Amino acid sequence: MSTPTTPNRHFKQVDVFTATPYLGNPLAVVLDGTGLSTDQMQRFTDWTNLSEATFLLPPEHADADYKVRIFCPGRELPFAGHPTLGSCHAWLQAGGQPKHPGHIIQECGVGLVKLRQSQGPHGQRLAFAAPPLVRSGPLPEADVALIARGLGIPRSNILHHAWCHNGPQWRGVMLASSEQVLALKPDGNILAGLDVGVVGPRGKVGVLGARPDGDGCAFEIRAFFHVIDGGVKEDPVTGSLNAGVAQWLIGAGLAPSSYVASQGTAMGRAGRVHVEQVGTDIWIEIGRASCR
CA–CA separation, 158 vs 154, rounded Å? Predict the structure, then answer.
């Protein structure tokens, strides 16, 4: 990238949350954002026409390996999941060396985020520990009724709901099935100003929540986020939402402590999000990311 007042800078485009190229959620990572203003970062993000772009910077916190600023069209985000994983992947590929092998600390708007690096049968695996929720608990009934109208469904179709606010102000709702989730045709005028995550079980629901279907996925998820110029857009695969939803569902006994969620199906993508609770941490993992 370059601007009239800055030299050329290298950036990578990373496909996150999929093992199949072009079927995940793309991200632009500027490998050295030093010296760029907020306005320059925002203009570059808007130019990429992607859901997010990130800018790697030297860390300011003594425990961090690097700092990242995360932007989506029209605004900066304090935290986002697929930019966290994609930025770490690009940082490692560019020669980044963590202070503690296998464990990376990212500095961003919500503070420090832990990541772990491991090797799986198909190559490198990266996961981040879900940051603490800024807000949790049931949604106001007025919000639930508004979301139902915006999704074009009866209020009775929303079986459970909760705040999943972890930087982005996600409001999570659960429907009875993945079929109901995939059939949604949201009205952006009604949902304007809201970030809404919708989840539905793909397999049978038992005492411990959803059981995997034939593809190994327990849930189908869709994410609708507000845009500055009004209305909402759908995000292909969303780490921050999956992190907040996992904290909600596991904590409420609606999901087991380890599961795989599918996202992006309605957009022709094949996103897979691996969730695992280890002690008090809930890890959101990708099996592989492609980078070019």
Answer: 8
Q: How far apart are CA 165 and CA 169, in angstroms?
A: 4
Residue type at 133 in one-letter notation: L
Contact 230, 116 (CB under 8 A): no
Structure tokens at 116: 């772990």
Residue 18: its pLDDT value, please? 76
Q: Is 234 a catalytic residue?
A: no
66 strand-pairing partners: 106
Q: How far apart are CA 171 and CA 158, in angstroms?
A: 12
Nearest to 277 by CA among 252, 247, 237, 253: 247
**In the predicted model, what is the mean pLDDT of residues 181-201?**
97
| pLDDT band, very low/low/confident/very high, at 21 (cuts 50, 70, 90) | confident
- DSSP code for 203: S
Of 64, 53, 127, 62, the C-alpha closest to 96 is 64
